[in-house]
Write a structure and sequence with these properties.
The protein has about 300 residues and is an alpha+beta fold. The chain has 3 domains: about 60 residues, no CATH class; about 130 residues, no CATH class; about 100 residues, no CATH class. It contains 8 helices and 10 strands.
Length: about 300
């Protein structure tokens, strides 16, 4: 497609050009958003951890995360999902048995770990020097600036003294941030682009402006007539208390160990429960508003006329 054809198609859009440009801007922002995380972070911590190598050479064990083992100190920003809640991953006296090597955590349990948190970041264990329970929760997407450590630990297994030479990733609590802190700028830019494109398009469509003005006039008329009725005031108070209360209750129950509906195990569960709650509240509000409309028609004496009309 040459330049003349592209220009002809662009001109054929007419008043819809601003909206088309907005969609193009949204697409560019979405690509930039994806590229930002791909270029600045390691987005597959689980795959990185799966490539580890544990060598057992007699009484000397080596746990390497790289093909070529070396000293620690390098930093990498990992982006992933917290698979388990941090409050269940804090090392405390009585929750771990010291002197035991844990292949899943990639370290030897010692008393120095008390008060620290072992996060499961998309399948990769990452030790945090502090208790972050209450600050972050399961299924949240976070970015963690982690430092590679290289240390030696002695422990006993089956009566033999074992030396573990390990590589691992560790971080401080202040090195953990929600990925949404960066995502919101991209999403905000996409929303602004759509709003700007829609507004500029509306300015080019005078017929749409007239229709919008008529719709606003009808909405204001209905609002002045209906919102002041006692029934509407009661419905608004009822649904405000119900929606806020139920949302608060569901959010509180998800923090318990025996969470309602089995708890949120993954992002799909969270979306499913949100969709269920939204559908339930919307359906209940629609039924109530419909019943209120019937009552209003009955009070005005027009209900028999409406029921007598033939179906179309």
């Amino acid at each position: 497609m040459n330049r003349e054809e592209l220009q002809a198609r662009w001109e054929a859009l007419g008043p819809w050009q601003p909206l088309a440009a907005a969609f193009l801007a949204v697409a560019l922002l979405a690509v930039s958003h994806y590229g930002y995380w791909q270029l600045t972070t390691e987005t597959d911590p689980g795959g990185y951890w799966a490539s580890r190598d544990l060598e057992r050479d007699g009484n000397v064990w080596r746990l390497y995360l790289d093909d070529e083992p070396g000293p620690g100190g390098s930093e990498v920003v990992f982006r992933g999902t917290l698979v388990t809640s941090p409050r269940f991953s804090v090392y405390e006296n009585g929750t771990i048995k010291t002197g035991i090597f844990s292949p899943s955590d990639g370290l030897v349990y010692t008393e120095d770990l008390y008060g620290k948190t072992m996060l499961n970041l998309s399948g990769m264990p990452l030790l945090v020097h502090g208790n972050v329970s209450g600050q972050f929760f399961a299924n949240e997407i976070v970015a963690i600036r982690a430092t590679k450590v290289y240390n030696i630990t002695l422990f006993e297994q089956d009566g033999e003294n074992i030396t573990l030479i390990r590589q691992g990733w560790e971080a401080q609590p202040e090195d953990i941030v929600l990925a949404s802190q960066a995502d919101r700028w991209f999403f905000g830019g996409e929303l602004l682009a759509l709003m700007a494109g829609g507004w500029l398009t509306a300015q080019r469509l005078p017929g749409l402006q007239r229709e919008w003005g008529a719709a606003q006039h009808i909405a204001r008329f209905e609002a002045r007539r209906g919102l002041r009725s006692p029934r509407t005031i009661v419905l608004v108070l009822f649904f405000t208390l119900f929606i806020v209360g139920m949302g608060w209750l569901l959010g509180d129950l998800q923090k318990d160990e025996n969470a309602l509906l089995g708890g949120v195990q993954n992002p799909n569960d969270a979306l499913g429960q949100l969709a269920w709650f939204t559908f339930f509240v919307t359906a209940l509000a629609a039924v109530a508003v419909s019943l209120d409309s019937f009552v209003a028609e009955r009070d005005s004496g027009t209900l028999p006329l409406l029921l007598a009309q033939p179906l179309r």
